[in-house]
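quick one
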Amino acid sequence: RAQLRALRRLLVEERPTLEKALQDDLGKPALEAHTTEIGYVINEIDHTLKHLASWLRPKRVTVPMAMAPAKARWVREPLGVVLIISPWNYPINLTLAPLVGALAAGNAAVLKPSELSPATSSALAESLPRYLDGEAVAVVEGGVAESTTLLEERFDHIFYTGNGAVARIVMAAAVKHLTPVTLELGGKSPAVVEPGVDMATTARRLAWGKFTNAGQTCVAPDYVLAIGASAAELQRELAAAITEMFGADPKASPDYGRIVNERHLERLSALLDSGEVVAGGRVDREDLYMAPTVLGNVDPSSPVMAEEIFGPILPVVSVPDLDAAIAFVNERDKPLALYAFTDSQVTKRRLLTETSSGGVGFGLPIAHLAVPDLPFGGVGESGMGAYHAQASIDTFSHVKSVLDKSLALDTMRLAYAPITQFKEKVLRRML
Ligand code: NAD
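structure w/ nicotinamide-adenine-dinucleotide:
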């Protein structure tokens, strides 16, 4: 609790430094820095402090008659020392939200922020030791070399957020010490849009979810599956929504971020030919800027549909009906999130039961991960394990089973040899 309160103080008092670091690394607007990173973690701390006692309370269970009188309960114990390796896209949130869970469950932690968000990494490395107990939390800055060295050490849990290729390296390293891992990964999260829905609202919500942090969000809608005749209207509304949100020149908007580095900007630029540019398409290398972009008429076999986009490009793929949309999703890796814009309960039920994904958002993308009590995590290629609130306690603690029987009266005699006919009869009846 003391460490959590200290972490909260850090986030409040160092806010200007952290906001500046996020601005330097990602051009992150101040309000976005608050809602998706700093304020987000403060909420996670407050929610945790409020509910921690009930989450950690031992749970009593009943004891079978044959063992009575006795008491049984399960209690939680910390795992020990946790390694948290985090990525650059939400460098505060994805480093500190897992830390909140690790501390709440009673662990010490080593944090390894991403070298691709160097300003935030160094702000965390500088400020955390001033607020937190150095015996409880340490920060190691660096990239592949430092991560590799860390992974040679024995930890009691490794919590990795990032891409699937590195996740395999992390998991392979964990094998050596039989260390449990949580892998928070990404993938192509689809957004299914049905004809007949309020297309203007759908477009605004999709644009909001996609272009927050310039599309560099693990749960951003990666692509749209537009059912039937919905594509044309949706594309028009998406273009209108972008202008409404970011003006005619989004580059000048104070509410729009930048691409993390040149390598990612180049990677993204190469995807712009994958369809007809319905909105955006502009790139400014000097400024690491890519306009919020919508691609229409996208062929499923085009490059933009091959891998997670992780940038401000929203391809629209047309499919004839819901069956085709479901088949499309199921032919690919299980995504971190699946979104649908529909008024039909039948469609919702079918998507829930006929597809698999880390989470689901009906009518609103990305926001499910800000509902404190919803566990957040992937499935299959999008990850394993989950966290946030009570799910973090589950991840970062061991459930220890305790049976407690008094020595005062030996009611167990029935079970001891020699087994007489009488004992056998009674025991067979009881068990
Ligand atoms: P990244 O390049 O910052 O890498 C993540 C971390 O892995 C960094 O700390 C980095 O130093 C470390 N790393 C890199 N190479 C390593 C190696 N060889 N050995 C050990 N550690 C190594 O970030 P990224 O992977 O580009 O992040 C983007 C990906 O993360 C996307 O796929 C995105 O969807 C996913 N993501 C998932 C979540 C989630 O919560 N599920 C959140 C954000 C991002």
